[in-house]
Design brief:
Blueprint: H1 12-20, H2 24-33, H3 46-56, H4 67-73, H5 82-85, E1 133-134, H6 139-146, H7 149-164, H8 180-197, H9 214-231, H10 241-251, E2 261-262, H11 264-279, H12 288-310, E3 313-314, H13 329-337, H14 352-358, H15 363-373, H16 380-383, H17 385-390, H18 396-412, H19 415-418, E4 422-423, H20 446-449, E5 455-458, E6 465-468, H21 483-492
Helix pairs in contact: 7-12, 8-9, 8-12, 9-10, 10-11, 13-15, 13-18, 14-15
Length: 505
C-alpha cells in the first residue's frame, strides 16, 4: 500500500489497475453479491482509504491529510465510479411480481413441427398405378412439393410413427403384438440379410470406397420383390402394378446401385415403402408401434450389415458436422422413446455402461453405440461433435423437438436430398411439377429409378447450374469413403484393439 506522505502517489488509473488486478474470483464474488468494499482498507494508507471512500460514497469527497487531500481540494476531479464498478442488482420477484422477467425466446427460433392428420388410405380403384420417378428437378419443383399434400402426407406418416413409440422401449412390443403383415415384413428383411451373405464383397486391395458387389445384392432384391409383395397380399392389386410401384421404394431403401452410397434419402425410401403398404391397406394404425420398434430396428440391423459389407459411401455427407454418416430417423424415434424417461438423461450417451445396458431398448443409444464402434478415434466430441453438443440439452423433449425441426429442414426441405425422391400414385407429385416421362434415361436401372435421368437444375447457394442426374454434383456433396470402411481396413491391418485417441485428449 501507499503512504500519504509519499512524494509521488499513484495516479487514479494506476489505482484502478491495482483493483482490476485482484483475483478474478474475488471480483466476481463482489459483483454478484454486492459486498463492499472492493479494496481492503484495514491495512491501507490514507490514499487507498480515500479511494475506497470515494467508491463507497458515490464520489463524495472525504477529508484526508497530505497531498491526496490537497489534490482533491485543488479540484482534481475523481470521477463517480459507483455506477461503473458496482453494478445495479435487481431483486428477484415472485411469479406475479415485477422483479424477475421471463426471457423472451429468440425471434428466429423455429416452432416445433406438429404431427399433421394422416389421411385415410385411398380407394385402389381410384388410382392409376405407375412406376415412381423423380419429379423434383428444380427449385420450383421443390417449392411445389413443399406446398403439396404429398409433403404433409410424408410428414404425417413419419411423425405419426414417432408419436406411437413415445416412452416405449423396444421390449414393449411382444410377439403377440405383431400382425401377419408385420411378421411378413420381418421375414422379408431376414431374407434380404441372407442375400447379403450370398453376395460377398470383392477384394479391393484396401480401398475404402464402395464395393461393386453391392449391385449384385440390389439386383437380387429386385428379383425377390414380386414374391415378397405377393406374400404381403398386394400383388393382385391393379394387376400387379401396385406391387411394382411399392417395390421401387423397397429397392431404393438399401442404397443407390450406381453410386454405391446411402443416406437419409434412402432411409426415407424405406419409410415411404411402409407408407405405400399402408396406402394399399396392408398395414393399419395398430401396426404403428411394431413398425418402429420391431420392423425399423430390424431394418437398421440389415443396413449396418450392408454398410459394413459393401463399404457404402455416405450420400452427401457433412463429415463430422453431420448428425450421422447414414441415418437420421433412429435419433428422432429414439428421442421419442426417451421422452419422459425417469433416469436416462441426454448426457447418458457418454456413459458406456448405460449404452451397453439400454442400447438394445432405445434406438438413440443404440445408434450412438454403433457410431462409437465404427470410428477410428475415441470420443464423441472428436468424431461426432454434433451429437456431443446435443447431449447438453436439458431434456429429451428439447431433443425430440429439435429432431422434428431437423427432419423437416434437413431432409424434406433440402433440395440435394429431395431431388432424388420418387413420386407415383401412392405418393403423388404436385400439379405443375416437371415430368420428363420415361425413356430419357436410357435403361430401366438406376437412372430410371432415380426417376428418368436427365439433368437437375440446382440453385443452391445463389448459383444456378445444371449437372447430370447420375452422381452428385459439388452442390450436392462430394464422394467420400466410408468411416466404416476405414475402421474395417484398420482392423484388417492388425489394429483391432483400443481405438486411437487424439494426442491431446
Amino acid at each position: 500500500m501507499y503512504l500519504a506522505d509519499q512524494a509521488d502517489p499513484p495516479t487514479l488509473p494506476q489505482t484502478l489497475q491495482n483493483i482490476h488486478d485482484l483475483p478474478h474470483a474475488r471480483r466476481s464474488h463482489n459483483y454478484i453479491h454486492n459486498t463492499p468494499p472492493l479494496v481492503d482498507t484495514t491495512e491501507a494508507g490514507p490514499f487507498a482509504k480515500l479511494m475506497a471512500s470515494q467508491i463507497a460514497n458515490g464520489g463524495a469527497a472525504a477529508p484526508a491529510p497530505g497531498p491526496a487531500s490537497a489534490a482533491v481540494a485543488a479540484g482534481v476531479g475523481i470521477p463517480n465510479l459507483k455506477d461503473r464498478l458496482l453494478p445495479k442488482l435487481e431483486a428477484r420477484g415472485g411469479s406475479g411480481g415485477a422483479g424477475r422477467r421471463r426471457r423472451d425466446p429468440p425471434a428466429d427460433q423455429l416452432p416445433v413441427p406438429e404431427t399433421p392428420a394422416l389421411p385415410p388410405p385411398p380407394e385402389a380403384s381410384t388410382l392409376t398405378f405407375t412406376t415412381p420417378r423423380r419429379r423434383i428437378l428444380s427449385t420450383r419443383d421443390h417449392d411445389l412439393f413443399l406446398a403439396s399434400p404429398a409433403f404433409r402426407l410424408v410428414q404425417a406418416w413419419v411423425f405419426g410413427l414417432s408419436d406411437a413409440v413415445a416412452d416405449r422401449p423396444v421390449s414393449s412390443v411382444g410377439e403377440a403384438d405383431l400382425s401377419a403383415p408385420v411378421r411378413t415384413i420381418l421375414s422379408v428383411l431376414d431374407e434380404a440379410e441372407e442375400l447379403v451373405r450370398q453376395s460377398p464383397p470383392d477384394d479391393q486391395g484396401g480401398s475404402r470406397f464402395g464395393n461393386k458387389r453391392f449391385r449384385d445384392f440390389v439386383d437380387k432384391v429386385k428379383e425377390h420383390a414380386p414374391e415378397w409383395h405377393a406374400r404381403l397380399g398386394v400383388a393382385g392389386v391393379g394387376d400387379g402394378a401396385a406391387a411394382a410401384e411399392a417395390a421401387t421404394y423397397l429397392a431404393h431403401s438399401f442404397g443407390n446401385r450406381l453410386r454405391i452410397d446411402y443416406g437419409s434419402g434412402h432411409e426415407l425410401n424405406f419409410m415411404v415403402w411402409l407408407l405405400c403398404l399402408y396406402q394399399l391397406r396392408a398395414l393399419s394404425r395398430p401396426d404403428f408401434a411394431p413398425l418402429v420398434l420391431r420392423v425399423f430396428t430390424r431394418y437398421l440391423e440389415v443396413m449396418r450389415l450392408v454398410q459394413s459389407t459393401y463399404y457404402l459411401e455416405p450420400a452427401g455427407s457433412h463429415g463430422v458436422w453431420g448428425l450421422d454418416d447414414y441415418q437420421f430417423l433412429p435419433f428422432l424415434f429414439g428421442a421419442s422413446q426417451l421422452l419422459h424417461h425417469a433416469f436416462i438423461t441426454p448426457l447418458a450417451i457418454h456413459q458406456e455402461l448405460t449404452i451397453e445396458q439400454y442400447g438394445g431398448e432405445y434406438m438413440y443409444l443404440g445408434q450412438v453405440d454403433f457410431v462409437n464402434r465404427t470410428k477410428t478415434v475415441k470420443g464423441l466430441r472428436w468424431h461426432s461433435p454434433m451429437l456431443d453438443d446435443i447431449s447438453s440439452a436439458r431434456s429429451w423433449a428439447k431433443i425430440e423437438g429439435g429432431m422434428r425441426r431437423m427432419f423437416v429442414a434437413e431432409v424434406l426441405r433440402k433440395l440435394p436430398v429431395m431431388q432424388h425422391f420418387l413420386f407415383g400414385s401412392l405418393v403423388p407429385a404436385a400439379e405443375g411439377m416437371t415430368d420428363q416421362g420415361r425413356g430419357e434415361a436410357g435403361d430401366d436401372d438406376d437412372e430410371e429409378a432415380e426417376g428418368g435421368g436427365g439433368e437437375v437444375v440446382c440453385e443452391e447457394h445463389g448459383t444456378n447450374h445444371r449437372h447430370q442426374a447420375v452422381g452428385w454434383g459439388d452442390c450436392c456433396g462430394i464422394k467420400v469413403p466410408s468411416s466404416i470402411a476405414a475402421a474395417a481396413e484398420m482392423r484388417k491391418k492388425g489394429g483391432a484393439g483400443e481405438l486411437r485417441r487424439i494426442p491431446f485428449d
